[in-house]
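Predict both folds.
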Amino acid sequence: MCLCQFPSLREFVKIGRPVWGTCAGLIFLADKATGQKTGGQKLVGGLDCTVHRNFFGSQIQSFEAEVSAPEVASQEGGPETFRGVFIRAPAILEAGPEVQVLADYPVPSNISTSSDSAGEEQKENVEQSKVIVAVRQGNILATAFHPELTADTRWHSYFLKMANEIIESETSNSQLQVQVNINYSQKQLNELPIFQ
């Protein structure tokens, strides 16, 4: 991305236009990022959070998992979980008070091992903590995973409705409104293969 575009992108976010950042887009929208290369990275900002780049590891550690997203499910229907495709994914470590957490994901925070009487190691005291993987703050939606890589359109519908809310609050001009008429169905989920 050309650095000359950053002022325009920052202004676009700042004036309240609907924005959705997935994966690297989440990193760009964050006010602060950690785990960066030496010298850091330019950020568009606007999202009051701290993001860790590549939190889940390198490209070969990419994965798919069920992600709990009750807010999206309550508005869009369907199950409370969504198939998240995490590709060298970031995670939100801290979120400000204006940030609405839409989805989080459990990660082991403390794994200790001990040996049994036969000398074999056994895992015990595995505690689960969570990292944030989807948020909304005003005009900004951000996901650490890639909803566009599944047949489940609920995140897309959620974003379009969010955009409509923003546009409706700014103007009464109905020509600017995006019409959303997406009905969730189980059939949509089965149209694309899921690799595990």
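Second protein follows, with its predicted structure tokens after the sequence.
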Amino acid sequence: MEHQSRISRRMSQSAVIQAIANYGPTSRASVAKQTGLSKQTVSEIVANLEAEGWVRVVGQTEGNIGRRAVVYEISPSAATIASVDLGGTKVRVALCDLTGKVLAERVEPTSHEGGISIVDQIVRLIRASTDAPDSNFGELRIAVVGVPGVPEAETGAVLMAPNIAGIDQIDLAGSLQDRLGVEVFVENDVNLAALGEHWLGNPGDTDDLVFISVGTGIGAGIVVGGNLLRGSTGGAGEIGFLPFGADPFEQESLEVGAFERVSATKAIIDLYASKSGQTADVPSIFEAANAGDAAALTTLDEVAKQISRGAAALVAVVDPSAIVLGGSIGIREELLERVRRYMAMCCPKPFEIEKSRLGDHAALAGGASVALTHLHLSLFAEGQKGAEISVPPPDIAYFKAGAS
């Protein structure tokens, strides 16, 4: 009986905090109406939440019979979460409050030493903000790290991440958890970017979208029915290994991916060199194309055709409502325009490709949404089986408010 009472209390608390998160500032009477709980039950739960600092009074509003009703909202400073975007060239750390607003952001080149030095770097960047003398952040409660590979649940190693040395030799989540003293989740960075676009940037407010990231490599995050599609081993969306583009039976294709060999950074650099006899980095090739350089224009056309083939394959298999193109290369207008044009030529039905609205904050936004969802569940649902809490997204400008 006591067990049932405890479960009921958890469910009621979860419903109340969800109502305040979604409709706040709101009164206790409104919460009771939204949840179907009695006004007395809501008042008791809200009083406890206020005493513990999770909700706060933000004013009063006129009641139905002229009396003023106290209104509540989630207390932003009650807790802090960390969202980390670990890339082959940069590591970006954002600290967010309980509403998803970025309080502080730090970026620096990824440690070339790899392995455990990556753990040291992430911890240092997080502590640099949380331990700053002028910091008034809430207690750090949880961290989510996006990685350019596939986290292995059994060992904590990150596989298929050739751009970060030694990350497949350590328990990344476990090491960070030991150092930070909080729960840590590690997720593929493109998956997080897809969740970020679904949470904040969502074109057409759809629950079915594919995010394609083109940068150092190429990958996809797939959201179906509002949920991330991970696959049996977490490798769903590793489209760099689609067996077309380059010869999929060559050794390099087994290590890098046949499709990635014709669609990402190295492909652009190598293709331009073969056509022009010159070596240039990707930004310079885009500049040359904009200046009318024939070799650069042909390079972008051919790479865009390859990306369009991959996007068309995803449309045929997943049938999403939207495809969002992002990443340091994918977000370039010169490439986006070409991909749209070639998609129209190879896809049997009209299909619009959108540009990422979040840019280099997409994975950070996804990490924040995952962290906040886990935190709300652990705090207010207390791990009850089957509990669901959807954290309402902040405005994009509000989310980036503390970004550097």
